Amino acid sequence: MKYPSFCLNKKTKETRPEGKARTIRTWLQGSRGMLSARIYMPAMKDGQKCPAVVVMHGIMTTKDIYPQPAIAKMLQARGIMAVTFDFNGHGCSYGSFTDMTIPKEKEDALKVIGYVSSLPFVSRTGLCGHSQGGVVSALCAGELRERISAAVLMAPAAVCKDDALNGNIMGSVFDPANPPEVLKVMMHRLGGNYIRTAQQLDIYGQASLYKGPLCVIHGEKDKTVPARYGKQFKSVCPQCELHMLPEEGHLLNGDRTGVCSIACDFLANALGTER
User: Fold this and answer.
1) Helix (H) / strand (E) containing 4
2) How far is CA 167 from CA 70, 106, 170, 176, 186, in A?
3) Model confidence at 11, in pLDDT bands (50, 70, 90)?
């Protein structure tokens, strides 16, 4: 049987799953254009299967910035395939940042999850997301439910809805009843549709629909997304394994190895491997 190519560029030779561990740069189809991606393939034997984890970055960052590569490499070393990608309007992917919204990111993620889950050598699929990527992971897990075998939310930015309703996103103030078409946030231009759609999100309601293995990792010193937003996932998802880290902030980069180990240990235990 021939396996689908990881790369949609016809000039690139088809990649098969067996062989040594390797990282493949490629493009995957998103909801509105192509997404720049990396596939971290573990060492596999011919005919072997493995679990896979789709790893999602936060707002104003990319697949190549911590914690995404660190998580992916650690999973790869444990025999789990990891896929990282830039959301629309981020990194090298198609689209404009101003047009980006969380619902659009969810659509991108669903496309990537669908592709990964369809690979014949993938046995189970998990999710791992940091910050806004954690919100997208929670929304996808709630929608796909039993198709997701494990999910890890790292400093999930569920504050985004309250920020949009309160008229203050990362220090940029606006009228929440009449959002501007463009809001300058740090060095970026956030579109008005981002604000309007964020105001309508039901993050915890959607997350509560997911009954599978769930882990939330949050820093007690997080000033971007206060710790209560991470703790709330435990209230709506009783099965949630909650890790509140006293010395960590939003970036979770104080003890990088320790933080990533919590996420990868959870995913490896929940997903297992096909050794």
Assistant:
1) none
2) 34, 23, 10, 5, 15
3) very low
For residue range 115-161, list pLDDT tens digits in order. Answer: 999 999 999 999 999 999 999 999 999 999 999 999 999 999 999 99
Find where tokens 């025999």 sit. Answer: 79
Q: Provide the token pair at 215.
A: 């882990």
CA distance 82 to 254: 23
β-bridge mates for residue 22, sequence order = 41
DSSP state of 142: H
How far out from the chain centre does Cα 103 lie?
13
pLDDT tens readout for residues 179-206: 999 999 999 999 999 999 999 999 999 9
Q: Which CATH superfamily is domain 22-158+213-271 in?
A: Alpha/Beta hydrolase fold, catalytic domain (3.40.50.1820)
Confidence of residue 274 (pLDDT cuts 50, 70, 90): low
Q: How many CB atoms lie within 10 A of CB 108?
A: 28
CA–CA dist 250, 223 (Å, integer): 7
Phi, psi of 163 (to 5 degrees): -60, -45
pLDDT of residue 214: 98
Torsion of Cα atoms, 154 then 159 then 160 then 161, to 10°: 130
Whether 8 has a pLDDT exceeding 50, the answer reads no
Show the tokens assigned to 189. Answer: 């231009």
Arithmetic mean of pLDDT, 89-96: 96
Number of Cβ within a 10 Å radius of residue 178 = 8
Q: What was the pLDDT predicted at 212?
A: 98
Q: Is 200 exposed, middle or buried (0-12, 13-18, 19+ CB in 10 A)?
A: exposed
